[in-house]
Amino acid sequence: MVKSVAVVGAGVSGLSSLKCCLDEGLEPTCFERSDDIGGLWRFTETAGDGKTRAYRSVMTNTSKEMSCYSDFPFQEEYSNYMNQAKFWEYLRTYTEHFDLLKYIRFRTTVCSVMKHPDFVTTGQWVVVTESEGNRETTVFDAVMICTGLFLNAFLPLESFPGIKKFQGQVLHSQEYRTPEDFRGKRILVIGTGNTGGDVAVELGRTAARVFLSTRSGTWVISRLSDDGYPLDLINTTRFRHLIRWLLPSAIWSRMVEKRLNKWFNHENYGLHVCKGWRQKPIVNDELPSSILCGTVTVKVKVKEFTETSAVFEDGTVEDVDVVLFATGYTSSFPFLEEPTRSICRKKIFLHKCVFPSNLEKSTLAVIGHIHLSGSILTATELQARWVTRVFKGLCEIPPSSTLMASAAKKEQLIKQILTSRKWTTSPTWTSSPGA
Description:
Elements: E1 4-8, H1 12-23, E2 27-31, H2 84-97, E3 104-105, E4 109-115, H3 119-122, E5 125-131, E6 134-140, E7 142-145, E8 152-153, E9 169-172, E10 186-190, H4 194-203, E11 209-213, E12 220-221, H5 231-235, H6 238-246, H7 249-263, E13 282-283, H8 287-293, E14 297-299, E15 302-305, E16 309-312, E17 317-319, E18 322-325, E19 329-330, H9 340-345, E20 350-351, E21 355-356, E22 364-366, H10 376-392, H11 400-420
Parallel strand pairs: 1-2, 1-7, 2-3, 7-22, 9-18, 10-11, 10-18, 11-14, 12-13
Antiparallel strand pairs: 4-5, 5-6, 8-19, 15-16, 16-17, 20-21
Helix pairs in contact: 1-10
């Protein structure tokens, strides 16, 4: 039976995993490479250390009523949507309330996670860590990887001809903290995810000009419902889920698009969505107003760069001083050995987006490696509950052979669909931490 568990990362997913391990009587040890909890929700003034941090002005995209841990509600005086500081304070209070700090080893980097020589029998893992230049090797009965989706910045420079000869500043949104450093400059933001929209709006208040380039448009929704209540609180109901399940997809699609265009006509604002309503919307209350007031100008896809300007596919040319890529992140598990590393990166081979399909023993799990329309807190808590019960032997999952066969079948089906529709795949641009 599993007793000792290594938890990699002390962000939202790691804190959930620690708490659930303790609930099941397991013995967790959490390794966090920074000096505090919170992961990307901990703000730092400086950037460039390769760690993803929230910018100071970021707001949660889900309301507190739909976001808290099940056994630790937000305080009543907290606003419905919270800024970075308030949300991080909630995580800190949660950690202190359940006395989780004593299980976390800060400034400790996980160098490798390898199968124990007796893995087929024991399911154990050999975890090598480094802290202040000292390496330590420990054997654990199980491992929970809680490094999240926002680990490695995705910077697709090869997709933008001429970017290497551009003489201005080029950076990823991972490096963005506050707008003061960009005062009076002409800025091009590439990517219309949540981060791209947020940064463009904020820079529009201080920069000389802000251009927001989009490949295929985006749906924009407000945090408020028609009656002024949080939108997710009103929309997330069993009745709406039932209606969506019963209606033909074409009818549901028209209903959603009509609803989304009721606030403002996306085509008139240059945000017409080519992929239909299935494209995940962004949450931004100020972007339509910023476009209407001219502080943000929407542009089509960039065709190429010159030394001082950007040339767009519609033939227009704009002089720019800064190019900010809000093009999201790619998943990475550098401490895992092959083929488990590749299996974890390929989500289709993660059983229920959690357990790698190729392992003889279900003693390694990936927590929080999912895209959601709701809160990551609630999702990671549910995942961690399930995982710890599997570790303890209270739940079972199918054998590796069954999982691999199922995943391979799904992969082949997806390839056939993409081929028949002549689609091409590209890295996912995941540009918002949300909440």
